Amino acid sequence: MSNQTSPAKDAYAHLNERARGLAGKSDDSRIYAIREGAWLGYKDAKRIIGRMEELLAYPRITRMPNLLLVAPSFNGKTSILRRFVSEHLPVLDPAGEVTICPVIMVESPPKPDISDFYTRILDALMTPYKPTASVQEKYSQIKRLFRQMDVRMLIVDEIHHLIAGSLNRQQEFRNALKNLGNETMVCIVAAGIEDAYNAFNTDPQMSSRFTPEELR
């Protein structure tokens, strides 16, 4: 029996496993795969993900470390965050019949609206809630679910939206974010463009709690 590899297979030997699997597919399938994009783990991306892994493994303490990720527009910030989320997907705990959700990610509301922010968190947790629920009711539900689902990290993308509101609204939103971290003992990763610095630096407590990291 011949051990020779077929010429067709030799032609794809230089490709990685995923690319070889697509090589024999239809044009439409290959075009779809190209449009899906691919993860490029460049140096800065790996550094940020490594830092987030450290935060995820951090023991629960009264003052949790947090991260402020700042990057120019179209610099891959959101792709890095989504990649991290994809590596820490929810899992079902058969013993407790509960879903363990180590990481959740939401996009900051277009303006500093606490009720909208809490709604987005509840949606990310895929849990039902009363449409007429008050801000306090949503907050209580979130704290309970964070404990039940063992949430360890909350990622808030587009945090620069915070500066779209009045100074009072901005401060209320920052206080809500700070209280959520304090009471649930989760790490918070806030991400945005350069304006995110302005959203945090006006509050000494927030700027001291969030270590800035720039994605170059």
Number of strands: 7
Average pLDDT, rounded to a whole number, is 87
Count of domain modules: 2
The CATH homology group name of the largest domain: P-loop containing nucleotide triphosphate hydrolases
Assess the beta-strand content as a share of residues. Answer: 5-15%
Radius of gyration, CA atoms, in whole angstroms:
21 Å
Q: What's the architecture of the largest domain in CATH terms?
A: 3-Layer(aba) Sandwich
Number of helices: 10
- What spatial order of strands do you see in the largest sheet? 4-5-6-1-7
Counting helices, strands and paired strands, the structural category is alpha/beta
Low-confidence stretches: none
Order of helices and strands: HHHHEHEEEHHEHEHHE
- The gross shape turns out to be globular
Can you tell me about this structure?
With 216 residues, the protein is α/β, with parallel strands linked by helices. The chain contains ten helices and seven strands. Helices cover 47% and strands 15% of the residues. The protein has two domains: 7-36, no CATH class; 43-214, P-loop containing nucleotide triphosphate hydrolases (Rossmann fold, 3-Layer(aba) Sandwich). α4 (43-56) packs across α5 (77-86) and α6 (114-124) runs parallel beside α7. It has helices at residues 7-10, 17-23, 27-36, 43-56, 77-86, 114-124, 135-148, 167-184, 195-201, 204-209, and strands at 66-70, 91-93, 98-100, 103-107, 153-157, 187-192, 210-214. The model has no long low-confidence stretch (mean pLDDT 87). β2 (91-93) and β3 (98-100) form a beta hairpin. The protein is globular. It has a five-stranded parallel β-sheet, with helices on both faces. The longest helix is centred in the last third of the chain and has 18 residues, at 167-184.
